[in-house]
Amino acid sequence: MPQATPSTELAVPVCANGHRASVLDKCAAFTRADELKAAGLYPYLRVIETGQATEVEVDGRPMLMLGSNSYLELTSHPHVKARATRAIEQFGTGCAGSRVLNGTLPLHVELERKLAALVGKAAALVFPTGFQTNQGVVSSLVQRGEHIVADKYIHACILDGAGLSPGHFHRFEHNDTASLEAILAGLPPGAPALVITEGVFSMEGDVCPLPDLVRVSKAYGAQILLDDAHGLGVFGPGGSGTVAHFGLTGEVDLIMGTFSKSLGAIGGFIAGSERVVNYLMHNARPFLFSASASPASVGAVLGALEVMEAEPERIQRLWENARFLKQGLVAQGFDTGLSASPVIPVIVGEFERCLMAWRRLQDLGIFVNPVVPPGVPPQRSLIRISVTAGHTRAQLTRALEAFDQVGHELGIRRRQA
Ligand SMILES: Cc1ncc(COP(=O)(O)O)c(C=O)c1O
Asked: By 3-state DSSP, what share of the chain in percent is helix, strand and coil, each rounded to 5?
C-alpha cells in the first residue's frame, strides 16, 4: 500500500533545523518564586493546619489570623456546619453535573430565592464560584458593538470576563466619576454600555462612590453591575450589601456576590431582574458548562444567611473590631489608604520592603497577606489585613504591637507616632 502523502494544510510547520521552542520552556525559565523561597520571602501557599479561625496553626506554629475574608467568622459556626452536614447527608457530596442538566437541587432554588430577597432583586442565579459568576455574566451580557466601562482596580475575574466578551473594553480611573463620565461621553451615540465597579475594593478596602457613579451612568443610559464580594455581610441593613447601604437597590441593575467571604463557603451569585437572570441562566457559559455548587456549600450558605439574621451583633462586632484596628494603626503612623471597611491595607511602597515586613510579621506570629504588583500599582505594595467579627481586643492589641515593632524595624511609617 502506498503511504498517503500528508496534507500540507495539516502538516505542522517545523523550523529548518527540525527543532522548535517548547511551550514548556517558559516554565524552566520561571525562577522568581524559587528566588523568593531561597531568600525566605515567599509568602504564598502556606499550609494552614487548622480550620479558618482567628488562631490558626502553620508549620506547627500558632499564628493570629488577619488574612482571612471570613468577615462574620461563619466558616466554623456550629449552625453553618450543621446545615452543610445535613445537606451532605441528604444530597451527597456532589451534584455530578451542570445546573442545567442534573445539578439543580431544591437547595439551589431556595438559596437563589433567599439571596434575591437579601439584596432586594427579583431573581438570583448561583454559580460554582464568584470568579465564574463575573466571568460568565460579563462575557455573555456584553456583545459585539457594546461597551464595558470598568474601574481600573476591578478584580481579575471581571477583567477575564471582559477579555472573553466581544464588546469594547474601557477602564476609568479608580473611583473617579469624572473619568467615567469622559469615557461614557465619548462612546458612539446609542451604543449600549455596562459600567462595572466593586462595592468594597478587595485590596485596599475603600468603598466606591456609588451615588455619583449611578448618577453619571444613568445620565448616559448605561447599566450598572456592582461586584459586592467584600460588601455583602458587611454593609447595609442585615448585611444586605453596599447597594442597600446607599439606598440604591432600584438603580443598580446587577448585584454580584460571593460565598467565599462573609458567607462561609464557596460559590457566587448574580442578582437582577427575572428577564436578566433568565438570559444568564441560558447564556453564561460557566453556569452552563461547569458543575453546580456542591450541596455542602449551598447548605452552608443557607445556614450563614440564617445566622446573619439571628445574630446581627456579629456585624456590629466586625465594625467595632475594624475601627479599633484601623484607629490603632493610624495612631502608630501607618498609611492605611482610604480604607472604610474591615479590609485594611498598610501601605509599604516597595515590593522588597513589603515582603520583608510580611516576613517579620510572620516571625512574630501574625498571618497577613502581602499584596504586590500586579495586584496593586507599582510602588504601592501593601500588607493586607482583614478583620473579622471573631477577633478579640487582646488579639487585635497583639497585632498592633507586632505592627509597631515591624514599623520601627523597617521604617515603614508615614510619620512618627
Ligand atoms: C472583588 C472580588 N470579586 C470576585 C472574587 C471572586 O470570588 P471567589 O474567590 O469567591 O471565586 C473575589 C475574590 O477574591 C473578589 O475579591
From this structure: 40, 15, 45
Residue 233 and residue 67: Cα distance in Å, rounded?
Answer: 17
CA-to-CA distance for 185 and 177, rounded, in angstroms? 12
pLDDT, tens digit, for every residue of 266-297?
999 999 999 999 999 999 999 999 999 999 99
Domains of the chain and any CATH numbers: 37-66+312-410 (3.90.1150.10), 78-310 (3.40.640.10)
pLDDT (0 to 100) of residue 12: 54
- Exposed / middle / buried, residue 180 (Cβ in 10 Å: 0-12, 13-18, 19+): buried
202 annotated active-site:
yes
Nearest CA to 304 out of 52, 84, 65 is that of 84
Measured from the Cα of 260, ligand 1's closest atom is 10
**Among residues 180, 248, 252, 251, which one has the least CA distance to residue 220?**
180
SS3 111: helix
Q: Could you identify the atom of ligand 1 that is nearest to the CA of residue 259?
A: 10
For residues 372 and 383, the answer to whether their CB atoms sit within 8 Å is no
State yes or no: is 230 an active-site residue.
yes
Under the banding of pLDDT at 50, 70 and 90, the label for residue 254 is: very high
Give the separation between CA 64 and CA 227, rounded to whole angstroms: 29
What backbone phi and psi angles, to 5 degrees, belong to 197?
-150, 180
Using alpha carbons, list the distances in angstroms from residue 225 to 120, 137, 228: 14, 9, 9
The rounded Å distance from CA 259 to ligand 1 centre is 9
* Residue 145 falls in which region: left (phi positive, over 0), alpha (psi -120 to 50) or beta: left
Catalytic-residue membership of 261: yes
* Half-sphere exposure (Cβ direction) of 366: Cα atoms closer than 13 Å: 28
Confidence label for 414 from pLDDT (cuts 50, 70 and 90): confident
Nearest to 230 by CA among 258, 266, 270: 258
